[in-house]
From TrEMBL:
This is Crp/Fnr family transcriptional regulator. CDD domains: CAP_ED. InterPro entries: cNMP-bd_dom, cNMP-bd_dom_sf, RmlC-like_jellyroll.
Length: 229
């Protein structure tokens, strides 16, 4: 089954210093505590630059076969939350998975700057154009899948988004160094369920923890994705 997400924010993998300055200088600084909601079931028409921390974004889509997704937006990224595919209909919630500091800059402000400076406009276009592939496959999980499949799906996206390659023994180090609580929150599972999944994978030799973080074997992301019962 193809696990690619079709409705997603554009998340820039890297932000040029000049563009970051434009967003920060013209934006509103917002400090969020861990688990605090920045937005609950609404829409937002702004660029969001994550200066520090980690955000989670839940999107309920108004499709015939309802899909609910969660994407994670790490520090150093700019997320574009415009509802390109279903304006005004998707329900969006944004929550801080860690203590976070963000800058919120309205589209109108950024677009006005772009209209007055074609060079800046080109830089913004390049930023998102160059990252289109990673943006459309950002770190996410889909809640129509089982807990185990959601975790596999998230691992797939994390590896793909960062371009992580296996070492000589087939192991890949996951980014972000997420905690048990953060993984549990991201895939919406209990800690017990998460621990049982990871324990089983450890027994199978496809997951391990080390001082530098968590590793998965290259065979794990290749497993089939199953729908939730």
């Amino acid at each position: 089954m193809n696990d690619d997400i079709h409705i997603t924010p554009y998340i820039a993998a890297a932000v040029d210093d000049e563009l970051r300055k434009i967003i920060v200088d013209n934006g509103k600084k917002v400090t969020l505590n861990k688990r605090e909601f920045f937005l609950k079931q609404g829409t937002i028409n702004s660029f969001v630059y994550v200066h520090s921390g980690l955000l989670g974004r839940i999107r309920d889509t108004p499709l015939e076969f309802k899909q609910t997704h969660l994407e994670i937006i790490p520090a150093g990224r700019v997320a574009n939350f415009l509802n390109f595919f279903s304006p005004g209909k998707a329900r969006i919630s944004i929550q801080a998975l860690r203590n976070s500091e963000i800058y919120l800059t309205p589209y109108k402000t950024v677009y006005a700057i772009m209209e007055n400076d074609r060079r800046i406009a080109h830089e913004f276009e390049q930023m998102y154009g160059a990252n289109m592939e990673t943006a459309l496959r950002s770190c996410y999980c889909n809640f129509i899948f089982s807990c185990e499949s959601r975790l596999i799906s998230l691992f797939r996206a994390m590896i793909r988004n960062y371009g992580i390659m296996p070492d000589g023994n087939g192991w890949m180090l996951l980014p972000y160094k997420l905690t048990r609580e953060e993984y549990s929150q991201i895939i919406f599972s209990s800690l017990l369920t998460l621990d049982n999944i990871l324990l089983q994978w450890k027994k199978e030799g496809v997951y391990k923890k080390a001082k530098e973080g968590s590793y998965i074997h290259q065979s794990l992301p290749l497993r089939s994705i199953a729908y939730a019962p």
